[in-house]
Write the structure tokens for this entry.
Amino acid sequence: MNRIGTALLTSALVAMMSVAAFALPTAIMETKGVSPRDVTIDTTDIYTKPATGLPNVGVGEWVYLEASSDDTLEVTGWSWSFAARPNGSAAELNATDAPIVKFAPDVVGTFRVSLQVTTGNGQSEAVVMAINAANYVGVGGITGDATRGQCSMCHEDYSVPWAETKHASAWARKYDGEAGSHFGPNCVSCHVTGYNADQGAVNGGFDDRARDENWVFIDSANGGLREGSWEAMKENFPQTANMGNIQCESCHGPGSAHNANVADNKMVSSMAVGSCAKCHDSGTHHFRPYQWYLSKHSSPVEEERTGCADCHSGVGFLDQLAGIHDTLSRIEYVPITCATCHDPHDATNEHQVRTVAPYTLANGVEVNTDNGNLCLNCHHSRSNADTAIVKSITNRFGPHHGPQGDMLAGTNAFTFGGEPVRNMHLMAVENGCVGCHMAPSPADPNDPDSYWKVGDHTFAMKSEEGAENYGACVSCHPGASSYETIMADEDWDGDGTTEGVKDEVAGLLDNLARALPPYGEPTVTLNNNLTPIQRQAAWNWVFVNEDKSSGMHNAAFTRQILQGALSQDLGVSKTDESIPATFSLSSPYPNPFNPMSAFSYTLAKDVDVSIKVYDMAGREIASLVSGNQKAGSYKAPINMMGKPSGIYLLKMEAGSFTASQKLALVK
């Protein structure tokens, strides 16, 4: 009996351990936006029609659903089904065992889709999503003004400023001839609300009402596309006109089931890019959502922490602009999408950007770059350099990844007594960051391999393929053919050659790293053993590295703070507290070198130490160590920037001990 009990207990423990070690996966179901470009380039036949990606759609509009899992193991099986459909519906999913499925709701009502996924840890519980299918209502009962939708009756705080946006008059302006004869029937769908010409998409949208009222597009050759066309349309085709312009339902989904009810996605608000991409990503002359997809904004590092949400999540960024920070901020991960930077409801600022207010950096310096101020809300140092260097050094030492605004302004780094130099980019480039990073793309719109992979909404100055958006630079740098050929005015890094700014800055960074602990290495050891002056130099090194422009944002300031750090006495580092048996002076490494090296030495007792560099004529070139030191092992840098090539002598005197090593400076 005891043996049976033991066996049962053992089995139970094994089962519990198995559950703990192999927790069942959790299925994740998400709607997926599909742009016209996605449809064009798709080779799987899954994406056959564009879709907003909203869970609230018009009857007959396609819904794409994508499966994933929180499991670290690969998903190997999917089980899709309808948990419920409205009465009278015959809608079917196109597949039941696939990572992405689709369907088109065929009646008004709520469709509940169920998903289970399977990984090596087993099958998940089912998750269910409600998809609401409804009809478009448009302006509806509000007469005399076909630019305001019914939504304004409850949401006037949004609809009033929205009425001043270009979306609110997109159809009216174009139908009155603003775009000339270029505007044609193929343009209608993206300038009105609820347009979907598919046979099954009968949902009260623009095309359905146009068909019912026998409205047809009148081009300029037949007397249309001129002032008064919109007023005539409102008078003669009022129901069709009521769906004119980019109204609320274009971005939030149809409203016939809403009536103040948001349950089961009867009305939605989303920051996803799908609603924008349905019209702004045609794959030809409309391309910005695709550019955004190529940018780092589309996939920022997922940091669901209150201190990071301000800039790593779209909703966190909006909270930041509203003055809500830290613990009150929404921390769920949402990419930095169109609606993060552009306010779809408010045209107060140019391009409807969320803010153009000057930004105050962590050290109190205010920066104003007009439209570029929006970028500064995230692309700035998180710390004031003066206060940060006196705190305990952690793995977050430095400006913390994004000091571009500080670099552009030439502030919040250490100049070691020098007056910060002015930045011509800040003074000459209109709109700061925007002027260069969003300069028009040079790529060929007819080349499917380029697809505008630099500039504009990629925010990239250089693509992965090596294409450079150099157009923004040519007015001031006409002689250069690439960023690498924007030349420095002289040899900044002391290697004997005047190179491009980026190469000179790379050399200065390498020099400074080798001049700081652990000395002679291309990286810096950041810990609390650094002296105050070493901390300042280390801050500058991190600052320039994390700016990531290799001097392009502010070449003069970059040079100033790196050379300034290298001009300081950065001291020596004690590498071992134990007392050596003998005095010694090691051979420098690297040797030959240009222009930085390092050496080690040991002291068998407390003693006055002098270590100097001499040329072969016996003239003193540099004093590296001078003063009384405790017994121990030490390491120190050799900085020969600005010195000519040649053979030098490193000489050490410590009490009665003397030693020397030859140095070969080769440029």
Summary: Residues 287-346 form one domain. The longest strand covers residues 109-119.
